[in-house]
Amino acid sequence: MFHLKVDLLKDNILKALLIFALPILIANIFQQLYNTMDTMIVGNFLGDTSLAAISACGAVYELLMICFRSW
């Protein structure tokens, strides 16, 4: 398994922060791709009302995902 040890106090600050933030960035990219595909599928097959429901619940879903990722 890939393991990279980073000391945020002694290493180069920019390098350490980028390595620290990389998993969060990758997770956010995949989450955005999921949301985009969900919007495309619902918009094409289920109609405007269903798309509005997805959009209305999107903020709540994002909040829950942020809370569960922090555990």
From TrEMBL:
<keyword id="KW-0812">Transmembrane</keyword>
<protein>
    <submittedName>
        <fullName>MatE protein</fullName>
    </submittedName>
</protein>
<dbReference type="GO" id="GO:0042910">
    <property type="term" value="F:xenobiotic transmembrane transporter activity"/>
</dbReference>
<dbReference type="InterPro" id="IPR002528">
    <property type="entry name" value="MATE_fam"/>
</dbReference>
<keyword id="KW-1133">Transmembrane helix</keyword>
<feature type="transmembrane region" description="Helical">
    <location>
        <begin position="12"/>
        <end position="30"/>
    </location>
</feature>
<dbReference type="GO" id="GO:0016020">
    <property type="term" value="C:membrane"/>
</dbReference>
<dbReference type="Pfam" id="PF01554">
    <property type="entry name" value="MatE"/>
</dbReference>
<dbReference type="GO" id="GO:0015297">
    <property type="term" value="F:antiporter activity"/>
</dbReference>
<feature type="transmembrane region" description="Helical">
    <location>
        <begin position="50"/>
        <end position="68"/>
    </location>
</feature>
<keyword id="KW-0472">Membrane</keyword>
